[in-house]
Amino acid sequence: METVKEKISRLKEKDAKTLLGGGKDKLKAQHELGKMTARERLHLFFDNGLYQEMNRFVEHTSTAFGMEGKELPGDGVATALGAVDGRLVYASSQDFTVMGGSVGKMHAWKIIETMHRSLKNGAPYVAFNDSGGARIQEAIDSLRGYGEIFYYNTLLSGVVPQIAIIAGPCAGGAAYSPALMDFIVMVEGTGKLFIAGPKVIKEATGEDISDEELGGAMAQASHSGNVHLIARDDADAIELTKKLLSYMPSNNTEMPPYTGDGKLHIFEDESLNEIVPDDPRDPYNMMEIIEKVVDPGSIFEIQEHFAKNMIVAFARMNGRSVGIIANQPLEKYGCIDIDASDKASKFIRFCNAFSIPLITFVDVPGFLPGVEQEFGGIIRHGAKMLFSYSAATVPKITIIIRKAYGGAYLAMSAKSLGADRVAAWPTAEIAVMGAEGAVSVLYKNEITSAAEPKAKRRELIDKYKHQFATPYPAAEAGLVDAIIEPLKTREYIAIALESLKNKRDLRPQKKHGLIPL
What we know:
Blueprint: H1 4-19, H2 24-32, H3 38-45, E1 51-54, E2 77-84, E3 87-94, H4 105-121, E4 125-129, H5 139-156, E5 162-166, E6 169-171, H6 176-180, E7 183-187, E8 192-194, H7 198-205, H8 211-215, H9 217-222, E9 229-231, H10 234-246, H11 286-293, E10 300-302, E11 310-317, E12 320-327, H12 338-353, E13 358-364, H13 371-376, H14 378-391, E14 396-405, H15 406-411, E15 421-424, E16 429-431, H16 435-442, H17 444-448, H18 453-467, H19 472-476, E17 482-483, H20 489-499
Parallel strand pairs: 3-4, 4-5, 5-7, 6-8, 7-9, 12-13, 13-14, 14-15, 14-16, 15-17
Antiparallel strand pairs: 1-2, 2-3, 10-11, 11-12
């Protein structure tokens, strides 16, 4: 009969064997690639390296050819719960040393069980992706596992934050789980994200491209916009994820973390009065304005390499988390194009789902014109912004800095779309279109019949700008609540946020709206 001491000894042996994953040689190979092991990632992620691993001794149940008698410690994934900055978080971490981290029936079950607990207990879910993909030997069971993971990604959506860390390969169908999550953090060099790899593309289309050019961090961040944050290595990815979590609540029934002291800290930066150039055609850096308004050092930009004409970022105002959406005049003059529309819409909807107020800074001459944009669906994509802002029930504060023309003005959280507070700088130009275009339409005959058409056109443009390209007609119509001196911007936003912290916005009862996809 086995003694208690022997039973404990057997547990320790089994535990040690599981912790070794695929063995010392494979752990060494993982390190040589510049990658942490699955449990090293969890150790660094959770406070003080303390976490509770779940279902550690789960093994595969496959009887497929080549799987009989094969030992797969933990079935290639470690799942755990622990504290991150003192708050409960659930995580799964794929173990590439065990059969390449491939996803089989029990591997998928462990991930799904973790997601279920995340949903049940209202805590964020973080997935470390490092896998060769579907376990071919388990065939349909592997596909079913992926399908159930996707299903749970959808169940968790809008209830708890979901963050994917791409720390190794993530290809084929596996890429859709991160795509269904809220944010993707990707490690440079070691992370790879694509549906079809270079070899498949070469065979199918004849195109030559490397792994890094196709599925590397910068490629997926700048071209497709799939990746939200780029990390130097695993440790940096973990730090970025922790920072990201610090701006958001644990679930949709809680408010975001508050780091303030209960007081309004108002300061005025006189340089704000000088940022906007006298010539409305000259660009400037919108990020400089944002930095001078929000809490110092609190800006955390998202997708900075994608659709640079639109800024989206988290920040804090008097310790409260806020979401920032802003046009960037340095890129495409701040015009809204297809990618910018998608970028802003996704961010708006995330913030709305998790009670994060929206602050919008506007300098937009219009939607980007062009055949490529029209055929690419700028109408459909631009409508996503109109829908997202209109559907958002969180506090919405808009600051119009300079240009605010036509439908693009509306798309940037105009009063007509439900903005709670709208303030304009004296430099704001709110109109259907720019003065040059408007004059060409309104005074075509008068200009062509003038003795000096160019001089007449200039005269009419100046007259139009003086009468209409200002914030005052909009203020007179109640579409602008206040015209403020630029250096008063923080004060205006801070007071507005405080007044809106108990906002209630009742909407018609329905299953869900139909966003134009």
